[in-house]
Predict the structure.
Amino acid sequence: MKNQLLKKLGTVLVIASSLSACGNTEKDTVITKAPEKKLNILYIMSDDHTRQAIGAYGGLLSSIDPTPNIDKLASEGTRFDNVFVTNSICTPSRATIITGQYSQTNGALDLDGQISADKQYLPKLMSQAGYQTAIIGKWHLKKEPKAFDYYKVLPNQGKYFDPVFRDKNAKGKWPNNKVQSKGHSSDVITDLSIDWLSHRDKNKPFFLMHHYKSPHDMFENAPRYDEYLANVEIPEPASLYSQPNWGSKATKGENDSLVHEIGTSVSKRNPRRNMGIHMNVDQSLSDKKYTHESYQHYLKRYLRTVKGVDDNLARLFNYLKETGEWDNTVIIYTGDQGILLGEHDLIDKRWMYEPSLRMPFIVRYPGKTKAPKVNGDLINNTDFAPMMLDIAGVETPEYMQGQSFANVFDNKPLEKWREATYYRYWMHRAHHDVPSHFGVRSKEYKLIFFYGTHYDATPVQSDVNYAGHNWSRKDGVIPSKTATPAGWEFYDLKNDPEELHNRYDDPQYKEVIAKLKAEMLKQREAYNETDANYPHIQKVIDKHWND
């Protein structure tokens, strides 16, 4: 599908055929700038590392600050404050980053998504631009990462300790090219990246995607962090205990009838799955004490794995400094999405609420003396590939739906930029009982529509053993096949940044909501995100659009 947003023309040209709605393979002919020394690009991504857990972003956990090395990177570069994921779950987010496309266009709607070699656009174009490419760590896109010159990746989620990797140079063909390692995954992945850097072709710039498994649940830290934060009381969000004006019938049920089902919790609210169960908290404790203990265990285990990432980054950064590549390398740090750390008594990602929607994004770009310390433009993960390609001297192909924001590093305004970012979560009630929804987020407001049904309309069959996101409860109910009430939520982020009050029915916001609905329709059309292929969902949308 041809990108419907205007692309900014720079000094670099690329000729590319457009991507059809049927998914035809693109052919790329790259014309780069006049020969000049290109900077290396090191893209570092942790799994579920939310910005609340990075000291440089301030906030509730800043006093603990498990990330001094990431903070220092931010102090020497640009901290982006309004970066958002378009589908807050591992596989779809990673697919968007590799392709520069929204989920329906790249085909990875959920955890079953996959990206074959012909759609691995980012590494393919980097190679054509003269870069030696590699990905080390978590891949989670099922198909072999063939477009990279080298890969050594975890199978699916991978293990925290003694992880197995699929190695391009190992015996056997994908997915049987496995090798065993020893140690904690964060240590091992860092060792592997340093080893690759030490043996790379020094005549080429490198593009390395260095991906940690940490701090994905269920959090397992290296033993040296067992006592980290042991005697520290972790600050708690107020909404952990009370959310009287947050949510809607879509997230609580009619008359709160689904409060104990929708959204896995920290507290005992969701008896099927809550963090206290995962953390082995004493079930006989009072509700408040149980919530407190569950939260403290949750955060400490999460932050211990974060600390392991940050310490390993110190090793990686020191290697670059010792080899003289520190000031020849653009370093990007991010997470594949955010995560809820007890806000609204919720855990995990998936939701369009701020802690899940926001991504940390920090860039140290050597030589860019005019680069701002902080940027507030609305950026989403479709823009990552275009921005990195721009740094490499490659214009954004028409089939990518994101745009480069590299002008920020020269302190130039982004022209014809988005006024809101679009989001969609597809996996209705999978794993963490989050209803399916979509929405838009501007700088000041957020509008969410929960349509509450799975995209697969196939009826339940009694003889089918449902697995994955079609899991069955002990009572036989298959949540993904069980619709939840449709409903709207609207938050005034300027006056209510913690999203404590759903103002959808407040008449003073009628015009703002109408504009956001128009923007929602516009972006759904522009990015191939309509429900033309899912008429049962479109029926729900039509019925409740004017509620």
The two ends are 32 Å apart (CA to CA).
